[in-house]
Amino acid sequence: MKIGIPTEIKNNESRVSITPAGVFELSKQNHEIFLQFNAGLASGFSNQAYQEAGAVILDHIEDVYETAELIVKVKEPIEAEYNLIKENQLVFTYFHFASSQQLTQAMLKAKAICIAYETVQDEDSSLPLLTPMSEVAGRMATQQGAKYLEKPIKGKGILLGGVPGVSPGKVLVLGAGVVGIQAAKMAAGLGAHVTILDISMKRLRYVNDIMPSHVVTEFSNEYNIRKHIKTADLIIGAVLIAGAKAPKLITADMLKEMTPGTVMVDVAVDQGGCFETTKPTTHENPTYIIDNVVHYCVTNMPGAVPYTSTLALTNVTFPYVMQLANLGWQKACDLNKSLAKGLSMVNGKVICPEVKKAFPELVN
């Protein structure tokens, strides 16, 4: 199969979808890999490393899309790529369709076969291709939140861990999934006082078992959210409903109950965000302020640490890439039920139930 690896062109997205090691393994199976010039450079992988592994280097993104049967990406295609995608072309990447009607319409028009990383799902309901990036994003949420609490960037001027004689900062985490636990782990490591809210008692019991005593849990409801936002210094939105839009847990009116300089980090922004005031931002312009509350809503947080993120992501995506290349998408999805869960669109028709629910007007 002819496999294309385009350079990611989303703002400050530096990850790459396949490493030279992956190219080497695919080449051994007689697949042809076409890499756009410098696609792996920001992640620490040179063109020479890819060539030595068996890839053909193409100068332009148009050439990669024109040549490949299978496009493997990291982030969803952006507008400049829409017209490059061909009918029957297989595209394997993060899509997050439910948060973008424009992207959904574009892929329907292209009549491509779209398999979304974020909805590939194992029998135990875990999301194997989302988990490593959730781990990175969860840890980064605390790291970035701590930075934006600094006064020069309009935060409260609080050091999350405090110092002897000064109380630590308070972190509120909405959601006790992978993102939430990683965010809480980082915040606890800094010495902050952490509260995690979730609607699953099973998850809250798990958090209680693994976290230190300064991480506390409470059941998530509007009353408890309103109670905690009044004193929280950093609020991290870590809510996920696989393939669907995130629920709006913090409404616009709640911002007036927060103290000026509070920082909110919405890791659910790819799925529409769990704050009503969320607007997607970039690493170039990561924050904005509403009612004196700092919002950090970068849609590709792990892209800021591309070496770590690329290796973490490709460790889990590559076996699926190999299956798709060896078997074709139909047979691969027939044999691998986890992969079949990621099938979002086929030749102009929506397959994913959550996308159908998000955009019923687009369902054929």
Automatic annotation (TrEMBL):
<feature type="binding site">
    <location>
        <position position="198"/>
    </location>
    <ligand>
        <name>NAD(+)</name>
    </ligand>
</feature>
<dbReference type="InterPro" id="IPR007698">
    <property type="entry name" value="AlaDH/PNT_NAD(H)-bd"/>
</dbReference>
<feature type="active site" description="Proton donor/acceptor">
    <location>
        <position position="270"/>
    </location>
</feature>
<feature type="binding site">
    <location>
        <begin position="267"/>
        <end position="270"/>
    </location>
    <ligand>
        <name>NAD(+)</name>
    </ligand>
</feature>
<dbReference type="GO" id="GO:0000286">
    <property type="term" value="F:alanine dehydrogenase activity"/>
</dbReference>
<dbReference type="Pfam" id="PF01262">
    <property type="entry name" value="AlaDh_PNT_C"/>
</dbReference>
<comment type="similarity">
    <text>Belongs to the AlaDH/PNT family.</text>
</comment>
<dbReference type="GO" id="GO:0005886">
    <property type="term" value="C:plasma membrane"/>
</dbReference>
<feature type="binding site">
    <location>
        <position position="203"/>
    </location>
    <ligand>
        <name>NAD(+)</name>
    </ligand>
</feature>
<feature type="domain" description="Alanine dehydrogenase/pyridine nucleotide transhydrogenase NAD(H)-binding">
    <location>
        <begin position="149"/>
        <end position="297"/>
    </location>
</feature>
<dbReference type="GO" id="GO:0042853">
    <property type="term" value="P:L-alanine catabolic process"/>
</dbReference>
<dbReference type="InterPro" id="IPR036291">
    <property type="entry name" value="NAD(P)-bd_dom_sf"/>
</dbReference>
<dbReference type="InterPro" id="IPR007886">
    <property type="entry name" value="AlaDH/PNT_N"/>
</dbReference>
<dbReference type="GO" id="GO:0000166">
    <property type="term" value="F:nucleotide binding"/>
</dbReference>
<feature type="binding site">
    <location>
        <position position="134"/>
    </location>
    <ligand>
        <name>NAD(+)</name>
    </ligand>
</feature>
<feature type="binding site">
    <location>
        <position position="220"/>
    </location>
    <ligand>
        <name>NAD(+)</name>
    </ligand>
</feature>
<keyword id="KW-0560">Oxidoreductase</keyword>
<feature type="binding site">
    <location>
        <begin position="298"/>
        <end position="301"/>
    </location>
    <ligand>
        <name>NAD(+)</name>
    </ligand>
</feature>
<feature type="binding site">
    <location>
        <position position="75"/>
    </location>
    <ligand>
        <name>substrate</name>
    </ligand>
</feature>
<dbReference type="InterPro" id="IPR008141">
    <property type="entry name" value="Ala_DH"/>
</dbReference>
<protein>
    <recommendedName>
        <fullName>Alanine dehydrogenase</fullName>
        <ecNumber>1.4.1.1</ecNumber>
    </recommendedName>
</protein>
<feature type="active site" description="Proton donor/acceptor">
    <location>
        <position position="96"/>
    </location>
</feature>
<feature type="binding site">
    <location>
        <begin position="239"/>
        <end position="240"/>
    </location>
    <ligand>
        <name>NAD(+)</name>
    </ligand>
</feature>
<feature type="binding site">
    <location>
        <position position="15"/>
    </location>
    <ligand>
        <name>substrate</name>
    </ligand>
</feature>
<keyword id="KW-0520">NAD</keyword>
<dbReference type="InterPro" id="IPR008143">
    <property type="entry name" value="Ala_DH/PNT_CS2"/>
</dbReference>
<dbReference type="Pfam" id="PF05222">
    <property type="entry name" value="AlaDh_PNT_N"/>
</dbReference>
<feature type="domain" description="Alanine dehydrogenase/pyridine nucleotide transhydrogenase N-terminal">
    <location>
        <begin position="4"/>
        <end position="137"/>
    </location>
</feature>
<keyword id="KW-0547">Nucleotide-binding</keyword>
